[in-house]
Write a structure and sequence with these properties.
Blueprint: H1 9-15, H2 40-48, H3 51-58, E1 65-70, E2 78-85, E3 88-95, E4 106-111, E5 120-122, H4 126-145, E6 157-162, H5 167-202, H6 204-220, E7 233-234, E8 242-243, H7 246-256, H8 270-277
Antiparallel strand pairs: 1-2, 1-6, 2-3, 3-4, 4-5, 7-8
Keywords: Metal-binding, Zinc, Zinc-finger
Domain MYND-type: 223-260
Organism: Mycena rosella
């Protein structure tokens, strides 16, 4: 279940009411789809720290209805929406020109807590829905915690509401979404201008090369996302994930153990990169 699953059990007991029998551990419900460490909104929000929306999403007793929607990055993608009515949660993708969430192009639906498991997806793979969930949550966190800074998410949030939402909260989020949209539109303009400038100045291959260098830098960062740019310790099992300390490695293990050894460790050497460029 890409949205609800993924709360580390040992932490959820201490911080959140145990409304579900799932998580990145051995207590996963046997009828739930397989969950990996980086899947879904809850995993990302919990790991990066955005409690308000997460609490409303999981508060099935105090908050009867929850709704959220974020615009797509481009016309090739769909808007991401999350709704919960009672214990039934749905996360899906809606065509960018549509406001009808009753007819999503793809999505996942499931229940929380004591209700009988009813998880299923449609119109696409679970991996796609989970990838969208992670991207959405990361964008959320960046814009809540890095206000005023350029973070390059280019996703406009257009709907945040829940049952019992006070007028002051509604005003707060309406104002925030308007400011957020303004920043996104400005970022889009600047991004397009800079891209066209670089394309004319250095060409598409050089742009790809720059992206390749960014990838190599990202592969050196501590997997626990502590901020260390060059980590020197490697996971002793997969020899791919990097950490700056044993403390970070232990803290991140509850996530990493789900996909240790399963990540694409294709050697991105310079020769491989030259082969990649031949495809453009």
């Amino acid at each position: 279940m890409p949205l609800i699953c993924g709360i580390p059990l040992e932490t959820s007991l201490a911080v959140y009411p145990k409304t579900i029998k799932s998580g990145v551990d051995s207590d996963q419900h046997p009828k739930s789809p397989r969950v990996t460490g980086s899947d879904g909104v809850v995993t990302r929000l919990h790991q990066l720290g955005e409690p308000e929306l997460l609490e409303r999403l999981l508060d099935v007793k105090g908050t009867t209805v929850f709704a959220f929607r974020m615009k797509a990055n481009s016309e090739k993608e769909g808007d991401v929406y999350i709704t919960r009515k009672g214990r039934v949660v749905e996360m899906g993708l809606v065509a960018t020109d549509s406001s009808d969430e009753a007819k999503p192009t793809s999505g996942m639906r499931y229940t929380i807590g004591e209700s009988a498991p009813a998880s299923f997806g449609w119109g696409g793979t679970a991996a796609v829905a989970r990838k969208r969930g992670t991207a959405l949550a990361l964008a959320l966190w960046r814009n809540f915690h890095l206000k005023g800074k350029k973070v390059g998410t280019r996703r406009a949030i257009v709907r945040i509401e829940w049952a019992g939402m006070t007028s002051s909260k509604q005003t707060k989020y309406d104002t925030w979404m308007a400011e957020f949209l303004e920043r996104v539109e400005q970022e889009n303009k600047e991004y397009k201008i800079e891209y066209e400038r670089l394309k004319a100045e250095i060409g598409i291959n050089a742009i790809l090369a720059s992206g390749f260098e960014d990838f190599k830098k990202s592969s050196l960062r501590c997997r626990a996302e502590c901020g260390v740019e060059v980590a020197t310790l490697r996971c002793s099992r997969c020899h791919f994930a990097k950490y700056c300390s044993q403390v970070c490695q232990v803290d991140n293990w509850k996530y990493h153990k789900q996909y240790c050894g399963k990540e694409d460790t294709w050697a991105f050497g310079d020769e491989k990169f030259e082969d990649l460029l031949k495809g453009f």
